[in-house]
C-alpha cells in the first residue's frame, strides 16, 4: 500500500469495525472467532480496534470464518450503509420530484430548439446518466442553484456520432431518445437500453408505436440502428399493444413534432406521462385527454421556445417514506405527496389497519398535480384479505409493489404479493429473509409473506434493482442490532440522499466506502 500512515490507520479501523459487526451478526465471541482463525483472542481484539496490520491472507481467513466479504476489491466507488436498527423516526420530510418524469423531460428537451429550465430536478444517478448522454450529443446543461434547477440548451445541430455508450447502456430511459430523434435524423444509432435487472423487458412495443412515424430499427451488436422514412406519419390512430409508460412517452414525443393530429389509444395516464404532456403544452403542442388512455396530439413541426417547467413530486418516493414510517412504527409527516397517484395504495393500507391523517390538498408547482401532506401514525397492521397486485394507472403502481411486501412482513397474517409484470423483481424480495422475514417464493411472480416479523440485523448485498434495494434498507431501520447494506449505488439511481434524509428523521445510518 502506498497510503499515508494516517489513511492506513483509518482503513484498519474501518476494517476492524466491519469485522466486529460481521462477528456479532454471526453471534460469535472474540474468543470463538480467534479459535477458528487459529489465533488469540487478544489478536482479534487488536484487529477489531484497527491496531493490527492485516495481510490479505488473514483477511481472507476472517472473511471465510465469518462467511462475509469484509473488504470488497475491484469495485471502486462502491458505497455501503451501516444501519443501527430500532430508532423511532419523527418529524416531517418533503417528497422530491420524480425520477421518471425527470428522465422523460430531459429526453423531451431534445424536441425544443430553445432553452428548457426544469425546476427542482431530483439529483440522482439516472438523471446524471441521461445528462451525460445529452452532453455527448452537444447539449449544454447547467445546475443553476442549490434547489436543483437545471438548464438545458441544445446545440444548433446535434452530433450523434459520439454518443456516450457507457452512460447510455446504464439506463433504460435511453430508449426515449428514439421519439425525439426521429424528427431530424434520417439515420442514427443508439446503444442498447440498460437499467434495473428485472428480467426481460421488451422494447417491441416501442418499435410498434414508432413505426407509423417511419422509424425502422435494426438491432445489431450492442446498438439499435435506426432509419427514418421522412414524411411518413400515422394514417390512423396508434394503438399501443401495452399500456407502458415509456412507450406512451415515446409515441407522444414522436407525435409532438409530427404535423397534423395523432391519436394514441391505450396510452398510459401515469404521472410521468402527465408531466411530459404538461411540458409539451407549454411548448405549444396541443394535447387533449391528459390523464386518460386516449390522447389527441396536434404536432408542431418546429419548436423553439424558452420554457420553464416544474415536474411533480414522486409517488414512489412518497410511498418509500410512508413505508419508512410504517416499518419503524413511527409518526412522521410526508409532505408534498402526489396524492392522486397514491390513492389506491392508501386505500389498501387503510384496509390493512393503517392510521393516517391527510391535509387539505394543494397544487404542485406544475399547476396540475394534486398534493397533500400525509401523517402516518403508529398502527397495528393485519394482512389484506385479497392478494396485492399492480395495474397500470389508476391501479396500484407496479413500482410500489415491493413496499407492500415489506409492509406485509410487518402485518399479522399471510399476504400474497403478485408481480405479474416483471420476470425477476419478486425474487429479490426473498432477500428480506436474511433479516428475519418469512417470504416464500411461490413462482417467479408470486411471493407469500407471513408476518409479523421479528427483524434482526444482518449483512446484505443490494440486489441489482432499485426498489427491492430500498425495501431492504427500510427493513434494516427496524431490525434489532446493526445491519450492513452493501453496494447501495443502485439506490442512488433513483433517490437523492435517501440515507441522509432518513437520518434527519432520526434513523441511525452511516455511509462508508470500499477500502
Ligand atoms: C423511466 C420510467 O418511467 N420507468 C418506469 C416505466 O418503465 P418502462 O415504461 O420502460 O416499463 P416497461 O416497458 O419495461 O414495462 C414494464 C413491464 O410491464 C410490461 N407491461 C407494461 C404495460 C402493460 O400494459 N402490460 C405489460 O405487460 C412490459 O412488457 C414490461 O415487462 O414503467 C415501469 C412499469 O410501470 C416502471 O417500473 C418504471 O419505473
Ligand atoms: C424499474 C424502475 O425504473 P427503470 O424503468 O428506470 O428501470 C423503477 O423505478 O423501479
TrEMBL record:
The UniProt record lists the keyword Cell division: yes
Main location as per UniProt: cytoplasm
Cellular component terms per the entry's GO annotation: cytoplasm
Gene Ontology MF term list: DNA binding; UDP-N-acetylglucosamine 1-carboxyvinyltransferase activity
Catalytic activity as recorded in UniProt: phosphoenolpyruvate + UDP-N-acetyl-alpha-D-glucosamine = UDP-N-acetyl-3-O-(1-carboxyvinyl)-alpha-D-glucosamine + phosphate
GO-annotated biological processes: cell division; cell wall organization; peptidoglycan biosynthetic process; regulation of cell shape
All residue ranges annotated as the HTH cro/C1-type domain in the record: 19-73
Entry EC no(s): 2.5.1.7
Top-level lineage group: Bacteria
EC category: transferase
UniProt keyword Transferase present: yes
Keyword annotations from UniProtKB, A to Z: Cell cycle, Cell division, Cell shape, Cell wall biogenesis/degradation, Cytoplasm, Peptidoglycan synthesis, Transferase
InterPro entries, sorted: Cro/C1-type_HTH, Enolpyruvate_Tfrase_dom, Enolpyruvate_Tfrase_sf, Lambda_DNA-bd_dom_sf, MurA_subfamily, RNA3'P_cycl/enolpyr_Trfase_a/b
Compartment annotation: Cytoplasm
Pfam families given in the database record: EPSP_synthase (PF00275), HTH_3 (PF01381)
Residue ranges of the TM segments: none
Pathway listed: Cell wall biogenesis; peptidoglycan biosynthesis
Protein family according to the UniProt entry: Belongs to the EPSP synthase family. MurA subfamily.
Role description: Cell wall formation. Adds enolpyruvyl to UDP-N-acetylglucosamine.
PANTHER family in UniProt: UDP-N-ACETYLGLUCOSAMINE 1-CARBOXYVINYLTRANSFERASE
Protein name per the record: UDP-N-acetylglucosamine 1-carboxyvinyltransferase
Organism of this sequence: Stackebrandtia albiflava
Amino acid at each position: 500500500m502506498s497510503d499515508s500512515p494516517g489513511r492506513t490507520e483509518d482503513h484498519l479501523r474501518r476494517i476492524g469495525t466491519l469485522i466486529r459487526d460481521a462477528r456479532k451478526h454471526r453471534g460469535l465471541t472474540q474468543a470463538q472467532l480467534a479459535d477458528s482463525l487459529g489465533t488469540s483472542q487478544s489478536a482479534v481484539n487488536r484487529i477489531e480496534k484497527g491496531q493490527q496490520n492485516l495481510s490479505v491472507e488473514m483477511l481472507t481467513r476472517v472473511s471465510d470464518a465469518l462467511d462475509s466479504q469484509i473488504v470488497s476489491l475491484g469495485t471502486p466507488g462502491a458505497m455501503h450503509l451501516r444501519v443501527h436498527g430500532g430508532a423511532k423516526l419523527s418529524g416531517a420530510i418533503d417528497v422530491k420530484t420524480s425520477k421518471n418524469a425527470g428522465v422523460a423531460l430531459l429526453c423531451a428537451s431534445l424536441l425544443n430548439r430553445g432553452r428548457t429550465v426544469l425546476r427542482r430536478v431530483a439529483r440522482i444517478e439516472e438523471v446524471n446518466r441521461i445528462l451525460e448522454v445529452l452532453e455527448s450529443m452537444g447539449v449544454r446543461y447547467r445546475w443553476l442553484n442549490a434547489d436543483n434547477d437545471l438548464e438545458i440548451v441544445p446545440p444548433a445541430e446535434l452530433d450523434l456520432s459520439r454518443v456516450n455508450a457507457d452512460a447510455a447502456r446504464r439506463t433504460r430511459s435511453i430508449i426515449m431518445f428514439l421519439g425525439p430523434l426521429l424528427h431530424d435524423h434520417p439515420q442514427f444509432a443508439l446503444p442498447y437500453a440498460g437499467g434495473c435487472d428485472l428480467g426481460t423487458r421488451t422494447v417491441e412495443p416501442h418499435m410498434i408505436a414508432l413505426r407509423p412515424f417511419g422509424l425502422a430499427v435494426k438491432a445489431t451488436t450492442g446498438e439499435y440502428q435506426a432509419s427514418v422514412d421522412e414524411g411518413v406519419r400515422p394514417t390512423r390512430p396508434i394503438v399501443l399493444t401495452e399500456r407502458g409508460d415509456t412507450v406512451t412517452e415515446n409515441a407522444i414525443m414522436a407525435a409532438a413534432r409530427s404535423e397534423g393530429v395523432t391519436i394514441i389509444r391505450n396510452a398510459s395516464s401515469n404521472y410521468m406521462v402527465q408531466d411530459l404532456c404538461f411540458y409539451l403544452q407549454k411548448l405549444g403542442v396541443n394535447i387533449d385527454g391528459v390523464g386518460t388512455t386516449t390522447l389527441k396530439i396536434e404536432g408542431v413541426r418546429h419548436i423553439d421556445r424558452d420554457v420553464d417547467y416544474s415536474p411533480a413530486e414522486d409517488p414512489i418516493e412518497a410511498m418509500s417514506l410512508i413505508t419508512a414510517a410504517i416499518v419503524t412504527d413511527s409518526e412522521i409527516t410526508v409532505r408534498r405527496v402526489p396524492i392522486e397517484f397514491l390513492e389506491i395504495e392508501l386505500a389498501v393500507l387503510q384496509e390493512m389497519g393503517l392510521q393516517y391523517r391527510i391535509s387539505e390538498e394543494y397544487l404542485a408547482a406544475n399547476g396540475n398535480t394534486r398534493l397533500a401532506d400525509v401523517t402516518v401514525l403508529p398502527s397495528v397492521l393485519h394482512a389484506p384479505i385479497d392478494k396485492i397486485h399492480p395495474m397500470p394507472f389508476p391501479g396500484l403502481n407496479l413500482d410500489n409493489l415491493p413496499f407492500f411486501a415489506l409492509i406485509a412482513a410487518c402485518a399479522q397474517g399471510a399476504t400474497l404479493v403478485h408481480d405479474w409484470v416483471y420476470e425477476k423483481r419478486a425474487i429479490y424480495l426473498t432477500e428480506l429473509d436474511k433479516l428475519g422475514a418469512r417470504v416464500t417464493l411461490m413462482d417467479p411472480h408470486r411471493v407469500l409473506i407471513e408476518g409479523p416479523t421479528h427483524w434482526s440485523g444482518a449483512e446484505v448485498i443490494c440486489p441489482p434493482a432499485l426498489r427491492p434495494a430500498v425495501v431492504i434498507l427500510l427493513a434494516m431501520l427496524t431490525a434489532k442490532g446493526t445491519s450492513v447494506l452493501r453496494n447501495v449505488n443502485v439506490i442512488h439511481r433513483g433517490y437523492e440522499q435517501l440515507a441522509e434524509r432518513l437520518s434527519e428523521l432520526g434513523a441511525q445510518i452511516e455511509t462508508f466506502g470500499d477500502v
